[in-house]
């Protein structure tokens, strides 16, 4: 494996790690936003799609 191939593989692994970090942070942010929404508006009950029609 050449130096370039090793560098590409290393960068691919780093990108995968960054994607995982961003996804985890996004999930965390969504949970925080959900908690804030519940505090502000109370629990929100979604209506199943079949009942909306």
How would you characterize this protein structure?
There is one protein chain. By secondary structure, the chain is an all-alpha fold. The chain is 81% helix and 0% strand. The protein has two helices and no strands. The longest helix has 39 residues. It starts with a helix and ends with a helix. The mean pLDDT is 88.
Unreliable residue stretches: none
Instruction: Bin the helical content.
Output: over 70%
Shape: elongated
State the separation between the terminal residues, measured CA to CA.
Answer: 60 Å
Tally of individual helices? 2
Question: What is the string of SSEs from the N terminus onward?
Answer: HH
Describe the SSE topology:
Elements: H1 3-41, H2 49-52
Summarize, please.
The chain has 53 residues and is mostly helical. The chain has helices at 3-41, 49-52. The protein is built from 2 helices and no strands.
Index terms:
53 residues, mainly alpha, 2 helices
